[in-house]
Amino acid sequence: MELFDSHAHLDDEKFEEDRDTLIEQIREAGVTKLISAGYSLEGSKKGKELADKYDFIYTTAGISPNDIPQTEEELWIMLSEIQKIAKQSKKVVAIGEIGLDYYWNQENKELQKVAFKKQIELANQLKLPIVIHTREAVMDTLEILKQEEVTKKGVFHCCPLNRELVKEALKLGFYISFAGPVTFKNSKNANEIIEMVPNERMLIETDSPYLSPEPLRGRRNDSRNVKFIAQKIAEVKGMNIEEVAKITYQNAERIFLNSKKDILDF
């Protein structure tokens, strides 16, 4: 059985002491492809370095709503650097994670929206999909996605278990990625949300080192634990874990690895 962790953060400082050893353990555990996602300028640089070093690792480049600078002028400089990173390597397979977060940041909503829209434009220019982060900002996120053309679509990563968001995201053509929260005992509507998502639109991820799934909640997460997400989906949908692994693997390849060829023109 092969697994594709569609969203991890191997650049995180929590992996500093054992990163290279862990990466080999992840591969040995059957995770034969993974995306170490960018979320800041520095994180995007480190993600590219990891992707260039390991053949089974890919990355994204983008500025998350929690990492945007204080001013538009600083934002333009930062996005110019993100564009350079995305053009430098065929292993950069999406623009992200990008989006809106009103849980951590209430005071800069308008600048978050600007950053989100500009990075959608960048993804369209590079013919890449987008990876969306949204928290406590469902309506504004959906409004922007309905207003802005998104050429290659993409995925809601660690998708909030919100019925309206999932329904509208699917209508717009996006994929839904499930992470550790679907396994949590207090995720009351997880089963319903999983059932809402067609097999051909679902992905699995760890968002490691965060959001460890049950039965490992509270520990440092890593890509080996993506199997627990697959197992949860299998239980809800009445499938076996091998089927879920195969379907989500193919879906992730369809979104991300069929897009990387487009940036070779630059």
Relative helix content = 40-55%
How many independent structural domains? 1
SSE succession:
EHEHEHEHEHEHEHEHH
How many DSSP H or I helices?
A: 9
Rg (CA only): 17 Å
Give the strand order, joined by hyphens, for the main sheet: 1-2-3-4-5-6-7-8
CATH topology: TIM Barrel
Structural class: alpha/beta
Low-pLDDT stretches are 260-266
Going by CATH, the homologous superfamily would be: Metal-dependent hydrolases
Average pLDDT score: 95
- The number of strands is 8
Any descriptors?
single chain, 266 residues, alpha/beta, TIM Barrel, 8-stranded parallel sheet, 42% helix
Structural features, described:
- The protein has nine helices and eight strands.
- It has 266 residues and is an alpha/beta fold.
- The chain has one domain (3-265): Metal-dependent hydrolases (TIM Barrel, Alpha-Beta Barrel).
- An eight-stranded parallel sheet has the order 1-2-3-4-5-6-7-8.
- The longest helix has 18 residues, at 109-126.
- The chain is globular.
- The termini are far apart.
